[in-house]
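Workshop exercise sheet. Pairs work together: one partner reads the sequence aloud, the other fills in the structure field after running the prediction. Swap roles for the next sheet.
Pair: D.N. / O.F.
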Amino acid sequence: MDVYSIFADYFDQLEPGLGILAGALLKRLDEGHLCLDLKSFKEDNPEEKIPDGILDPGPYLSHDPSVLTPFILYRNNLYFQRYFLYETHIEKKIRQLITEGNRLRDQRIRQLKPFRPLVEELFGENAEAFLPALLDNFCIVTGGPGTGKTTLVREVLRVLYAINPGLKIALAAPTGKAAARINESMTPLREQIPGLPLASTIHRLLESVSGSIFFRHNEDNPLIQDITIVDEASMIDGALMAKLLFAINPEKRLILLGDKDQLASVEAGSVFGDLCKTEGIGSVLDGHVIRLTKSWRFDPQKGIGLFSRSVMEGEPECIVHTINHPDQALAIDTTYDHRLFCEFAVMYRDYIEEPDIAKALEKIGRIRVLCAIREGERGVYQTNRRIAGYLRSIGLPIYPASGFYHNQPVMVTANMYALKVFNGDVGIIRRDPHDPGNRLYAWFPGPDGELLRILPGYLTQWETVFAMTINKSQGSEFDNVLVLLPDNKDVRILTRELLYTAVTRARTRVLVQAPKNVLEETVRKRISRASGLTNRLK
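Structure field:
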């Protein structure tokens, strides 16, 4: 008996007939949905009979969110109360930000007028299109890799700082890796804005309360910054988005950056994607979403640029076209050719043979194998073992073991603030030649170009990282990428968003290993998560 059946049985004992909906809702939550769409549930499960009256208000289900019950029914969607409140808070706070921004708009236009030449210099003919980022309290910037999202934000901050040299700024991202990338992209701005803060994780910005789901910064104790900019917002789940919005004073500004086509958050909710879908005439978000479509990294007529666009448009014909017409940037291998796998794996030689640890860290950051799954023949665990074994077999100084070993690449999987390493940070296990005990250390890139040296035993949550999941790769970029998908087209997580996210992690070249039928079915499927947010904001 699985957890969903146990959960269903529990509520059936309390309220006969409620269990079927309780179990289905819990399963949907685990699949990333914020609620159970009852219309879709009935259509997809005609054999399941929902008893008459079971959706009427009672001790366990309410139509009124002010009544404390486990379940809330709202607009034919069934929610756990907590997630209903998260969605409600997201809607409420976005409306507050937009309303307050509209009130301040005329004042801000007057403040901006003397700086119009700077705006035109920075934004050129696109100045009008980018005004929401300069004037509004709530703004979304969405675009694929290389479309200039962080460049736009740099220019926005230059203008706002020129208007107000006392501007207080916060930069954040869902993961430490993504925060580090913001810091890299903001380097050119640090001369123009002295004291520009380093980006942090959202959890650190909001100051998580140890041992709880709460944060020190909330509606009663909001952030003091005038503008908060959050990158990789597609990775933010419903709960965290609600708590982030709670911490923003309605008189301050929030800019969310992300790629609406990327994978949604691991936990429940696809808030960023829902918000991008909501924008349009008559919507609360009309005029508050900036869409960047021109890629400065990929040619839209070939290679990764053409393929990624075709994937997101749901065109499975792109698979056959790419198989028959590979180019230097993109190729598909439908047979899991071992020779091609080894040709990719041997590129790890560069970091292993590099004696300088800082340079070795830079080199390992150029390549990565991305897997859809963790377990199984083409999952992360087996692929990591396969690569380590191959590198050892060709004579490289790498000695796979059950724990830490020399030249092992590792990725931290949780924020460890005391060690200054964060979820997604990648390091190398190496002996320190200056250590008389010849001990192994974990080496990570630190702030300001320094190296962090940590005894491996202090790393409580980590994994080997020749290969990583596509989900974990969000917020990262590599020169060369090998995408490895399972040979079963029915694996639930295989969607066009997953494939799009994987191939767009590559800056230069990507090889995809998967059968043709698996890839075609992956392009046909898309992520669709149930929530009421889109309808609420229309």
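Discussion prompt: The chain has three domains: 3-75, 84-296, 303-524. What would you look at next?
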